[in-house]
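Lecture notes, part 5. Sequence design as translation. It can be helpful to think of inverse folding as translation between two languages: the language of shapes and the language of residues. The source text, in structure tokens, appears below.
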């Protein structure tokens, strides 16, 4: 291997969906059945390097300093195979990926992880930076990762079966609106049912799946319009409805998927109480896990964090503003 072989390095951030993705239009190509809209989070970063190596027979993946499980290596290899095919290269790589998340934040790292890996792998293969191609590549591995390629407020449209170029689109930059998300962490450890399995199970068994897929575009349109108008009430009401409709659909699967813990509902209730008591304009969302994410103006974030910290079962809170998209470093 020549000594000029480049190492690709990239940094990407986690994101939280304000309009939820749940369900696939095409499992093979990992195309979402509904549009989703997210905010990229500033402090929650993943840094990944891809080092092409002539001496390796297969790819290696070091996650947070430890060799990754075979299933995780296989997902990384699938992504690298697409990059190698496009660039016409045949090396194997040593991948190192480090999450700089607050300790045990309880937040998924697949979005920031695959966005960083996609950018780093394309760079290592000598492909020019191309945000749409990076987003489409990341989306194949984890649809929410397509959104982390862009900063600020981001939309991933629903996919039509077979549309392998589907990528996220930037909706508004970081400077557009300084909202804050307060994450109320309610449990340690990994969730019981992963998102991919949860979506498949829901589609196969929930009588509400078709209703969710039908309702989701209008909710995403409300979130989009609210972001563009900087109207927190419009975004927040649609976000809560999107959250609860997604969970209602999953709860009605057989057997039902319950991502809530008692503290989840207690924190959700506290958010609504803060609103009804006019102490803060704040709205809540939950993903495929027990944590509650509260969306508010930056000026209210400290008060919201304090109120959520007092809820029994809330272990800690993390404050996050909008952050930039993927960066080559
Ligand atoms: C979201 N979630 O929009 C939704 C809300 C979870 C609940 O995107 O199967 O890990 O890898 O494409 O990206 C989690 O889904 O799923 C997710 P795959 P991913 O943020």
């Amino acid at each position: 291997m020549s000594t000029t072989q480049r190492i690709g390095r990239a940094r990407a951030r986690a994101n939280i969906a304000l309009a939820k993705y749940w369900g696939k239009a095409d499992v093979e190509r990992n195309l979402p059945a509904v549009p989703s809209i997210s905010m990229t989070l500033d402090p929650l970063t993943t840094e990944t390097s891809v080092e092409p190596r002539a001496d390796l027979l297969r790819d290696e993946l070091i996650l947070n300093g430890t060799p990754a499980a075979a299933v995780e290596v296989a997902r990384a290899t699938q992504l690298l195979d697409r990059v190698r095919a496009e660039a016409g290269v045949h090396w194997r790589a040593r991948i190192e990926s480090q999450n700089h998340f607050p300790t045990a934040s309880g937040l998924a790292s697949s979005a920031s992880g695959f966005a960083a890996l996609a950018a780093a792998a394309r760079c290592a293969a000598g492909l020019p930076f191309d945000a749409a191609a990076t987003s489409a590549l990341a989306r194949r591995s984890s649809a929410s990762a397509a959104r982390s390629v862009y900063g600020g407020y981001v939309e991933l449209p629903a996919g039509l079966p077979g549309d392998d170029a589907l990528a996220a689109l930037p909706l508004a930059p970081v400077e557009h609106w300084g909202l804050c998300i307060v994450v109320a962490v309610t449990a340690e450890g990994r969730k019981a049912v992963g998102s991919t399995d949860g979506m498949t199970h829901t589609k196969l068994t929930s009588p509400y799946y078709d209703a969710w897929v039908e309702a989701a575009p209008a909710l995403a349109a409300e979130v989009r319009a609210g972001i563009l108008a900087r109207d927190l009430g419009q975004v927040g009401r649609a976000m809560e409805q999107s959250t609860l409709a997604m969970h209602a659909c999953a709860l009605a699967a057989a057997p039902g998927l319950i991502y809530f813990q008692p503290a989840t509902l207690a924190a959700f209730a506290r958010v609504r109480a803060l609103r009804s008591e006019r102490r803060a304009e704040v709205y809540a969302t939950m993903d495929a896990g027990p944590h509650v994410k509260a969306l508010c103006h930056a000026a209210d974030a400290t008060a919201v964090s304090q109120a959520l910290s007092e809820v029994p079962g809330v272990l800690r809170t993390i404050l996050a503003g909008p952050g930039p998209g993927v960066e080559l470093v």
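The translated text above is only one of many valid answers, since several sequences can fold into similar shapes. The chain has a mean pLDDT of 95.
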